[in-house]
Task: inverse folding
């Protein structure tokens, strides 16, 4: 006796697929939708809706009005973009944040990887050292900024150590040094978070690879470049993306450390100008135009980073 | 693409759209308000200790007499600034009835947002405001002559100086030479050269728009006998008086008598500077300093009784989200009554915007002679220009100021002219 298997499709009546679809409009696992609904609602409410709304605002003559107020919000095409990007301060702010990213992102990647590798090998005081790097990340910027103001002002500790080598005007009031100082500050403050990312990634690098490299005669430096760096590549892409996105959103530091983007706008960031335009000066439409362009620029940078650093991962 | 994915995407898209519509719906609609409605109301007041004390006693006094129209008083919620918190509350439709910390520079924007009630439309309100504040009230009208704010209190800006430091530097602490620009600079040099303070005076050198109110504005008001920096939609400050004021401050920075770096903390209280440019609110802050006060300097020196300055006023706004505006107006009058203004004076040291301040509270000023000069100065104060673009104009000015005056980049004349051109354009925006 032979058993025969009939393909299920052959037994289905014509049109069975569409009837089943009709019975399951929510897909094969409707419970999944239920479980993901809270996060979906969160993403829609906190990210998607404001983003779409910002794009809409950027094409209209818009200001925040009281509910019920009779306000006309005519479509103005690209007028807000023209207003924003014919302002030299806005163009300069994009240049400023470019300088910031050029310093902050590579420094973050290199320092956090090197320090994470070193911390991974440390056997004593491990918890103390990891917490030490993480504390600045957890501390409120306002508190840390006050310490840096003391360190980097004209009579501060840094200048006293440097003596005649100290720049004049001092770091935070120098057009040349204000943004690099902010980049250094942010790198230091955020480093603990990225070190944690790399520490997690390092646990996934097989120890056998290090043993093989050692057997082949590789030293510590060679192992680092040939095993560690490729082994943590996904984490590197993540660090690149996150540090770029958070860096492009730079606000608190120029707001507090350099007193509103000074000196002479040398440390003003696009988000600081969005704050001034949108919230202080009542022009959320122009602010939205700056924001939309910033999102596009960051997306392009992120795509390039993913393309060139992400490889096949 | 299969029809199953289409179907699922359709459902997801429907959820997204429904969510958006829901949110949009949340932002629509408005509270039912009544200009004569009576009932409980909420008010916000500033969060400094003195004003909280004043606010609490005022609320308690009102509530004791009006059990059916109780006030719920609270400090303004924390935020980067009170103005942002208020602006957000207006847009969200949950602003309280009255806010006792409404900055005149923000009133134009709040009005444009539809967040404020036009007090001029309340029967007897305009005459009440004018009878209480006199001619000073004119500055608080919008360009159409309407009151969207109740002038409440001012903090006339003057020069505070540390008498002990002056004495240590060999200067007369009771008659300091600070009335002209050249005297002020010479005195500053003596103070710094004597090493009694690192800098002579340290106004905030930073780029925030409001800092202009504490360096340029008071001196320009004094130099011009109370001229606004914008009149008839045109900047006025690019004139000789404006150049002189800017030159004065540029010299202070250039000669290191003031610092281009922001100080962490209060420079005057910490003994880092020998002078400060502040209002009477500072009296309670500087209780550990042996201080004296003089009017802000002018080019040639004028008597204290003729010197004008910046008001640093905070006013009261009646907000359109208020359901019981009748009670709110009654509370507004109660809280600006002669008795409550006396409490304000006694508890905060700030000057009620009253035309007859010194005679009404003669006892207070005779018992507190330190405040007498502020009481006199309060009748000669200048406010920021009205309108929805005040902040934008002040920011344009500040940007030019920090560049040319604080960091010494370029001539002050061309900087002020550039700012004036920019402000002329901004002033015409609706």
Result:
């Amino acid at each position: 006796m032979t058993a025969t298997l009939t393909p299920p499709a052959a037994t289905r009546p014509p049109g069975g697929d569409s009837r089943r679809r009709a019975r399951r409009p929510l897909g094969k696992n409707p419970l999944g939708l239920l479980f993901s609904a809270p996060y979906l609602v969160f993403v829609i409410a906190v990210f998607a809706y404001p983003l779409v709304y910002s794009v809409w605002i950027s094409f209209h003559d818009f200001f925040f009005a009281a509910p019920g107020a009779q306000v006309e919000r005519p479509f103005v095409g690209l007028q807000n973009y023209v207003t924003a990007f014919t302002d030299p301060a806005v163009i300069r702010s994009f240049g400023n944040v470019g300088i910031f990213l050029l310093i902050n992102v590579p420094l973050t990647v290199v320092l956090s990887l090197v320090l994470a590798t070193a911390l991974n090998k440390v056997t004593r005081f491990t918890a103390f050292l990891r917490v030490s790097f993480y504390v600045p990340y957890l501390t409120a910027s306002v508190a840390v900024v006050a310490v840096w103001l003391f360190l980097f002002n004209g009579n501060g500790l840094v200048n006293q150590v440097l003596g005649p080598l100290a720049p004049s005007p001092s770091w935070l009031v120098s057009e040349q040094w204000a943004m690099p100082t902010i980049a250094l500050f942010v790198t230091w403050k955020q480093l603990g978070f990225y070190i944690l990312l790399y520490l997690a990634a390092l646990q996934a690098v097989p120890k056998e690879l290090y043993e093989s490299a050692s057997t082949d005669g590789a030293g510590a430096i060679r192992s680092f470049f040939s095993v560690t760096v490729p082994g943590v590549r996904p984490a590197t892409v993540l660090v690149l993306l996150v540090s770029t996105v958070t860096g492009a959103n730079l606000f608190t530091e120029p707001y507090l450390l350099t007193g509103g983007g000074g000196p002479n706008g040398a440390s003003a960031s696009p988000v600081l100008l969005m704050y001034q335009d949108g919230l202080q000066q009542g022009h959320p439409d122009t602010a939205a135009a700056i924001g939309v362009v910033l999102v596009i620029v960051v997306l392009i940078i992120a795509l390039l980073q993913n393309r060139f650093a992400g490889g096949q991962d | 693409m299969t029809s199953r994915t289409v179907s699922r995407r359709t459902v997801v898209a429907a959820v997204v759209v429904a969510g958006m519509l829901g949110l949009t719906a949340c932002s629509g609609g408005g509270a039912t308000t009544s200009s004569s409605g009576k009932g409980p109301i909420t008010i916000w007041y500033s969060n400094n200790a003195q004003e909280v004390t004043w606010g609490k006693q005022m609320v308690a006094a009102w509530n004791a007499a009006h059990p059916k129209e109780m006030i719920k008083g609270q400090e303004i919620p924390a935020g980067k600034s009170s103005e942002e918190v208020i602006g957000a509350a207006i847009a969200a439709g949950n602003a309280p009835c009255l806010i006792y910390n409404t900055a005149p520079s923000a009133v134009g924007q709040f009005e444009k947002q539809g967040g404020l009630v036009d007090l001029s439309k309340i029967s007897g309100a305009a005459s009440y405001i004018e009878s209480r504040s006199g001619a000073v009230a004119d500055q608080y009208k919008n360009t159409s002559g309407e009151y969207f704010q109740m002038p409440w209190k001012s903090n006339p800006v003057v020069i505070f100086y540390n008498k002990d430091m002056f004495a240590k530097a060999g200067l007369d602490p009771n008659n300091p030479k600070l009335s002209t620009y050249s005297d002020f600079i010479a005195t500053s040099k003596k103070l710094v050269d004597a090493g009694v303070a690192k800098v002579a005076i340290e106004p905030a050198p930073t780029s925030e728009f409001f800092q202009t109110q504490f360096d340029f504005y008071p001196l320009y008001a004094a130099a011009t006998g109370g001229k606004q920096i914008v009149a008839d939609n045109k900047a006025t400050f690019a004139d000789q008086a404006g150049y002189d004021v800017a030159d004065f401050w540029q010299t202070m920075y250039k000669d290191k008598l003031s610092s281009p770096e922001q100080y962490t903390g209060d420079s005057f209280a910490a003994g880092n500077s020998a002078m400060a440019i502040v209002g009477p609110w500072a009296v309670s802050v500087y209780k550990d300093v042996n201080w004296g006060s003089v009017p802000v300097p002018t080019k040639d020196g004028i008597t204290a009784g003729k010197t004008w300055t910046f008001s640093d006023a905070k006013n009261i706004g009646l907000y359109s989200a208020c359901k019981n505006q009748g009670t709110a107006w009654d509370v507004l009058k109660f809280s600006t009554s002669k008795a409550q203004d006396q409490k304000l004076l006694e508890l905060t040291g700030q000057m009620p915007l009253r035309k007859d301040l010194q005679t009404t509270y003669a006892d207070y000023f005779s018992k507190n002679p330190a405040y007498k000069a502020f009481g006199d100065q309060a009748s000669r104060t200048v406010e920021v220009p009205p309108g929805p673009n005040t902040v934008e104009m002040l920011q344009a000015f500040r940007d030019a100021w920090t560049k040319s005056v604080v960091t010494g980049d370029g001539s002050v004349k061309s900087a002020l002219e550039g700012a004036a051109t920019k402000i002329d354009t901004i002033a015409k925006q609706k």
About this structure: Confidence is low (pLDDT under 50) at residues 1-11 of chain A. Chain A touches chain B through 48 residues (CB under 8 Å). Residues 79-309 of chain A form a domain with the MetI-like fold fold (CATH 1.10.3720.10).
